[in-house]
Structure formats: structure tokens, C-alpha cells
């Protein structure tokens, strides 16, 4: 699954021409039988555009990377979307657990808007399942993939786990069991914390009430936890567990989007905002955008003036011609450490579909 650090690497890429292929795919037969044909048709479209604009020899490395990416797709194990990114010296394939519109784009940057949207609406998160065998999953929407890098899965080998409880006169077996459980969950928490340091994402914790209580006592990740799911799910399949934890995570994401709208209202009152793509773009270029709010279907193709600030009618030619200024704005805000939130059509109508909360 795509991590934020991997997305960041895609976003910082700059090289014209860079090709982005986005295509819906299917998880199962017979629907997935047409996926290779549709993706290859999009690739052919991109290659034709490349060779119409450049000498064949100049774009040969890009074409080679595109064809190599297509040849390496495992068509029997796709999700519901596929993204291929290729330039002269880069080639990336990303399976997506959400549907995308079929597109073939050529620009200076990779078209990561759909990925960015997913990162905000359906951001990657982790699921920690507490039990005698404690498991960790990397998650995106309802799709869970077990994290099998050491030390996971963790097996409780102490008293009350694989080892017998101590006995004898004066021994409080319950206290010994509880302390061993705390120590076990502390070690699990430390292992998750190391992963969070490298790639901080929200965390959903699953377990019976007793285990959740012990974990809350020892965790150092309280600020990362966005939800708890009570119940014994040590043997629940990833597909079934994904359906249970996704609503828990999504509730937390909805709260964050709502809070951003409240902040926008406050910013309007204090004059620390801008609306409309022209003004928002100026704020983004000037690195004054702290929070960007966008209607999810809003796109705005345009050419950039030589000053990089003013937007001109779209020609579709050259590195200063952007297939979508909104996508570029999103990428720049995230690279600069800002926040981006997406909303249904109409929610930002008064702001002409896009608004920015600016820095003080």
C-alpha cells in the first residue's frame, strides 16, 4: 500500500514529460478480464501524444518504462484502481483500493490528485489487534494487509500467555498475569511507535475491553489513536475486520473535515483566507496557505505565466501548461507541510469551489 512518504516522493518529482495513467480495475473475474486491454489503450494514447510532441528517440526511455510497468502488473490480484507513473528515469505502479476515472496525462509532475484525495478522505492507517497473538495491519479504507515485518505478529510468551502462571503460597496469580499482559502490550506499543516515527498515520486499536484498558495504560501513542473497536477479533479475517474498523476510522476523519470548515469560518471573520482558484494559487505559490479546502470534483486546467503566479488560458503544450492547477496546488501545500481537505460538490460554492486558510 502507498505510504505518505512514498506519495511525497511522487509529489516532489519534476521532469517534463512525466506520464500518469489512472484506470479503474476489478478484484475478481470476469470483470477483471477487460482490465489489461483498457489500461494498454490508455498507455497507447499517452505514447502517441508523447511521440507527437517529441522525437521518438527523446521519449524512448519514458515509453520503455511505461511498457515495463504494464508488463509487471499482476492482473489477477488488482484492487479497484491502478496508477502508473513514468518519466525518463522513474517508473512506479500503485494498486488503489478505490475507483478512479480512466485518464492518460502528461505534465511536468505526476498526477497524484486521486492519491492525495484518498490520503485525506481514505487515508492510510494502521490497525493493532490486541490478544495473545497481537497483529498489526496496514489499512486503506476496508482493505487490510497484515504487517509481517519483525517483530509482528507478536506472541505473548509470558505468564498468562504461553507460560504458566506462577503458583505457591502468597503469590497473587491475577496480579502477575495482569502485569505480564501490560508488559506484553508495552512491547507491542514500542514496536508500533518505531513505525510511527518513520511514517505517522492514524491508529485504530482492536481488542476485548480488558486488553484495551491495559493498552491505554501503557501506550505512548495516545495522540495517534483515532478510534477503538471492542471485541475479540484475533481470528477475524482481514476482509471482515476491514469492514468493522473502517467506520471507526472514517468517523474520526469526518470530525477533522468538519473542524476545518469551522476554522475557515473563523478565518473569514479575521480576514486570514482567500477564495477562488486565482487567489488560492497566489497564496500557495507565496507559501502562505496553511489549510486548503477543495470540492472533490473541482479541476482547473491552465497555463502559468512566466512569473509562476498568474494563470493563463490552457494550451496543453509545454512544462508551464498544467492539466490541473488544483492538483498542483494540493501537491505544493502538502510538500510545504500544510493540510488538505476534500468536500462534496456545493459545500464550498460561496468560495468558488476552493478556499485557503492563510498563515498569520
Please describe the structure with a list of short key phrases separated by commas or semicolons.
9 helices; 17 strands; globular; Translation, Eukaryotic Peptide Chain Release Factor Subunit 1, Chain A; 60s Ribosomal Protein L30, Chain: A; 22% strand
Give a written overview of the molecule.
The chain has 360 residues and is of the alpha+beta class. It has 3 domains: 4-121, 2-Layer Sandwich (Translation, Eukaryotic Peptide Chain Release Factor Subunit 1, Chain A); 125-254, Nucleotidyltransferase, domain 5 (2-Layer Sandwich), CATH 3.30.420; 271-358, 60s Ribosomal Protein L30, Chain: A. Helix content is 39%, strand content 22%. The protein has 9 helices and 17 strands. The chain has helices at 4-11, 35-53, 56-71, 113-121, 173-198, 209-218, 238-270, 277-285, 325-335, and strands at 18-24, 81-86, 91-96, 103-107, 125-129, 133-140, 143-146, 154-155, 203-207, 225-230, 273-275, 289-295, 302-304, 311-312, 321-322, 339-343, 354-358. Strands 5, 6, 7, 8, 9 and 10 form a 6-stranded mixed sheet that branches. Strands 3-2-1-4 form a 4-stranded antiparallel sheet, covered by helices on one side. Helix 2 packs antiparallel against helix 3 (56-71), helix 5 (173-198) crosses helix 6 and helix 8 (277-285) runs parallel beside helix 9 (325-335). The longest helix is centred in the last third of the chain and has 33 residues, at 238-270. The chain is globular. The mean pLDDT is 90.
Amino acid at each position: 500500500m502507498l505510504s505518505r512518504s512514498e506519495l511525497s516522493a511522487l509529489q516532489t518529482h519534476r521532469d517534463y514529460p512525466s506520464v500518469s495513467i489512472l484506470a479503474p480495475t476489478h478484484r475478481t473475474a470476469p470483470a477483471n478480464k477487460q482490465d489489461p486491454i483498457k489500461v494498454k489503450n490508455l498507455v497507447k494514447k499517452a505514447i502517441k501524444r508523447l511521440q507527437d510532441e517529441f522525437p521518438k528517440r527523446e521519449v524512448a526511455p519514458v515509453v520503455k518504462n511505461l511498457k515495463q510497468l504494464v508488463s509487471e502488473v499482476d492482473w489477477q490480484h488488482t484492487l479497484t484502481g491502478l496508477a502508473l507513473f513514468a518519466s525518463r528515469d522513474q517508473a512506479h505502479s500503485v494498486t488503489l483500493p478505490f475507483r478512479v476515472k480512466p485518464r492518460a496525462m502528461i505534465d511536468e509532475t505526476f498526477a497524484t490528485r486521486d492519491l492525495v484525495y484518498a490520503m485525506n478522505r481514505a487515508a492510510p492507517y494502521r490497525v493493532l489487534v490486541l490478544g495473545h497473538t497481537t497483529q498489526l495491519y496496514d489499512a486503506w479504507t476496508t482493505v487490510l494487509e497484515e504487517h509481517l515485518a519483525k517483530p509482528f505478529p507478536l506472541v505473548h510468551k509470558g505468564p498468562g500467555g504461553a507460560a504458566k502462571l506462577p503458583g505457591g503460597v502468597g503469590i497473587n496469580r491475577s496480579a502477575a498475569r495482569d502485569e505480564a499482559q501490560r508488559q506484553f502490550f508495552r512491547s507491542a506499543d514500542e514496536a508500533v511507535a518505531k513505525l510511527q516515527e518513520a511514517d505517522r498515520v492514524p491508529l485504530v486499536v482492536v481488542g476485548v475491553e480488558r486488553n484495551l484498558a491495559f493498552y491505554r495504560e501503557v501506550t505512548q501513542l495516545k495522540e495517534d489513536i483515532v478510534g477503538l473497536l471492542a471485541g475479540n477479533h484475533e481470528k477475524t479475517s482481514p476482509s471482515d475486520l476491514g469492514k468493522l474498523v473502517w467506520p471507526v476510522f472514517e468517523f474520526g476523519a469526518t470530525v477533522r473535515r468538519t473542524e476545518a470548515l469551522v476554522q475557515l469560518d473563523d478565518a473569514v471573520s479575521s480576514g486570514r483566507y482567500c477564495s477562488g482558484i486565482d487567489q488560492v494559487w497566489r497564496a500557495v505559490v507565496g507559501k502562505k496557505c496553511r489549510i486548503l479546502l477543495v470540492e472533490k470534483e473541482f479541476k482547473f486546467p491552465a497555463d502559468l505565466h512566466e512569473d509562476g503566479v498568474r494563470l493563463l488560458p490552457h494550451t496543453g503544450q509545454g512544462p508551464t501548461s498544467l492539466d490541473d492547477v488544483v492538483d498542483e496546488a494540493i501537491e505544493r501545500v502538502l510538500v510545504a507541510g500544510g493540510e488538505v481537505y476534500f468536500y462534496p460538490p456545493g459545500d464550498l460554492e460561496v468560495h468558488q469551489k476552493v478556499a485557503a486558510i492563510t498563515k498569520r
